[in-house]
Write a structure and sequence with these properties.
Elements: E1 2-6, E2 11-16, E3 19-24, E4 27-32, E5 38-42, E6 45-50, E7 56-61, E8 64-69, E9 72-77, E10 80-82
Parallel strand pairs: 1-9
Antiparallel strand pairs: 1-2, 3-4, 3-6, 5-8, 6-7, 7-10, 8-9
């Protein structure tokens, strides 16, 4: 699946991934290849990009929105801080 993560200032991520774990308003959820179309609000928490089975990137976010359709995921957030 393809993932774009955007803030008002810049594009944080653009690429093909295995999946993404997101902090929903009512708890965490995961999007993988061929997930049903979805639009959801995001809360404060950690966004995890699963690049493959052993590699991931983690960001702290304050909230935003996610849309997934036809294996393309777009995450719109106010800002993100990389977790080391």
């Amino acid at each position: 699946m393809h993932l774009d993560i955007l803030t008002p200032e810049r594009k944080i991520f653009n690429g093909d991934i295995m999946g993404v774990v997101l902090p929903g308003v009512q708890g965490y959820f995961e999007l993988l290849d061929n997930h049903a179309p979805i639009v959801a609000a995001l809360g404060k928490g950690q966004l995890k990009i699963l690049k493959d089975k052993t590699t991931q990137e983690v960001y702290n976010i304050e909230g935003g929105f996610v849309e997934m359709n036809n294996n393309k995921t777009i995450v719109l957030i106010e800002g993100a801080e990389t977790v080391k």
